[in-house]
Write a structure and sequence with these properties.
By secondary structure, this protein is an alpha/beta fold. It has nine helices and twelve strands.
């Protein structure tokens, strides 16, 4: 049995899968806000609870914002700042009396979609999360590529490519820099663009509804957002040239986002044409937790 845990800023989700990927159990609880020790206890409680219910001990993979530092066994780069500098992997291993695998949540998302999701069968997959933040993960032959510094796939913290004059110097990012792709393409970035055009404060989901209703400001907002997304993804295509790009996160649910996106990417990519598969995640908001479970290969189940 393979267990995955998705640790988010507001919720913690657990799933148990059999070797075929079928769901055996699933549960969500609220993340203890600002409470690291409480977060560890919550994860341990979920794992032991699922194992008690199913009567089996499983492998455990955990997806988390941020990544393990190469300098020490602690988390870094997490927008859930209570986790930064904490030895989460070590603490969970001690509490669960076993080795666990811990990986960035965007990497888990990409792995899930590469194993049995929208990009199943594609050798090279780049997974993109367009939500509260903008994450990315690279999977090659169903293996997560973390990189020398464990930051592979972090396209959201590069500057927006080919910036327009009105996009400079860009908004300040939580990472301390200005003009990061994340500040333009996160849900708040979409909402900010819409507000500038309409003087209305709507969420990304509400903007999608306004777009469906024919709202002109929503249409213009999506046009600008899509063009920025294409510029960002073209830089990924130029470096990685993946077989498939899978979009996830709340903003990825806007159906009109995909119309003509491949042609826009081709306008900026260093090629006469591209045939990269651009698809929406098939597992939705369950992809991260499923990917965490898939961090353990089948022969270790």
């Amino acid at each position: 049995m393979r267990i995955g845990v998705d640790l988010g800023g507001t919720k913690i989700e657990i799933i148990a899968l059999d070797d075929s990927g079928a769901t055996l159990a699933r549960k969500r609880v609220q993340t203890p806000a600002g409470d690291y020790d409480g977060t560890v206890r919550a994860i341990v409680g979920l794992v032991t609870g699922v194992e008690g219910k199913l009567g089996h001990r499983g492998t455990v993979g955990v997806g988390t914002p941020g990544a393990l530092s190469t300098q020490a066994d602690v988390l870094k780069n997490s927008n859930s700042v209570v986790l930064n500098g904490k030895p989460l992997k070590r603490d969970l291993e001690a509490a669960l009396s076993r080795a666990i695998r811990l990986e960035n949540d965007a990497n888990c998302f990409a792995l899930s979609e590469a194993v049995d999701g929208a990009a199943a069968g594609a050798p090279v997959v780049f997974g993109v999360i367009l939500g509260t933040g903008v994450g990315g993960g690279l999977v090659i032959d169903r293996n997560v590529v973390t990189g020398r510094n464990r930051i592979a796939g972090e396209w959201g913290h590069n500057p927006l490519p080919w910036p327009q004059p009105d996009e400079l110097p860009g908004h300040r990012c939580y990472c301390g820099k200005h003009g990061c792709i994340e500040t333009f393409l996160c849900g708040a970035g979409l909402a900010r663009e819409y507000a500038a055009r309409s003087q209305k404060a709507l969420t990304a989901a509400e903007i999608a509804d306004a777009l469906a209703a024919g709202d002109e400001a929503a249409r213009d907002t999506l046009r600008v957002y899509q063009e920025r997304l294409a510029r960002g993804l073209a830089s990924v295509v130029n470096i990685v040239d993946p077989d498939a790009i899978v979009l996830g996160g709340g903003v990825s649910n806007i159906e009109a986002l995909y119309t003509g996106l491949d042609r826009l990417i081709a306008r900026y990519a260093f090629s006469d044409a591209i045939d990269t598969k651009i698809v929406r995640a098939s597992h939705g908001d369950s992809s991260g937790v499923r990917g965490a479970a898939w961090l353990w290969p089948q022969n270790n189940s």
